[in-house]
What does this fold into?
Amino acid sequence: MIITVDKADALPLYEQLRRQIIAGLARGELEPGDMLPSVRRLAKDLGINLHTVNKAYAMLRDEGHIVMRRGSGAMVAPRDVGSLSQQHDREMRRMRDDIYRIAVEYKAHGGSLDEFMADVKHNASAVFQDETIDRSGDHADNQEAEEGLQ
It folds into this structure.
């Protein structure tokens, strides 16, 4: 999996890294036990601060996506670890909160429930049918949907 960042993007670099790694998991490019580049190596390869990479990795660890061990680096977390159940529950709650926040913003921009549900169904279908998920974790049509609200 190739990881890149766009320093001109308004999205923070750590979030770009986080989303790309999650997209790699969704696409099956990363499997449980796969090693990720070390913090230092990835920071050097991308020309960014190592604290930026460390922040992305810490977020991924806290969400249960990766395991970090001093001296052995970061690896994709196994799916069958019992402690992941609590992390999974927390992450599911966080995502539900995000969906609620997005729905509120959608409505505030004048969108209807039917339009919102159609957009959600379209984007979720693309992900679950294994259509292209770009490196940022976004689907190509998301930009068009966002532009339609402005």
Summary: The helical segments are 13-27, 39-46, 50-62, 84-108, 113-128, 140-149. Strands lie at 66-69, 73-76. Residues 143-150 have pLDDT under 50 and may be disordered. The first helix runs from residue 13 to 27.
